[in-house]
Amino acid sequence: MHNSPLAPQEISFRHVTLTRLIAVSCLLGLIVLGLVWELWLAPLRPGGTLLALKVLPLCFPLTGLLKNRMYTYRWLSLLIWLYFTEGVVRAWGDVAPSNYFALLEVFLCVILFTACALHVRLRLKYAKNNNPDETLSS
Length: 138
Prior knowledge:
By secondary structure, the chain is mainly α. It has helices at residues 8-41, 56-66, 70-93, 98-130. The protein has one domain (8-43, 67-130).
């Protein structure tokens, strides 16, 4: 029995779904990392700091990603560079273990940016191939 190859539309849809899953996972990872880093694992001051509030802006795009809103992927790919910058600065300037958490933050930011950029690109391509008159820019 021969397995037939997947149609290009199916591959594109699978890639769109995969990039969405990766984006949501990385965003959730950044939220959890920010909270446990600043409250328990390596806070700037014992007992935690208000720096944990840095994850609050990350909670807003979570709703948009879960609702699969294209606009959210676009602006999140810009917002994430603030967290990337914080991670680079703290990876360079903090001592262990905080610098390791900063490196993890940088890694998650790069993966999240890549997933958002690919998601937008693949989704527009998928929409163009399947519905030339209709775009998925909701």
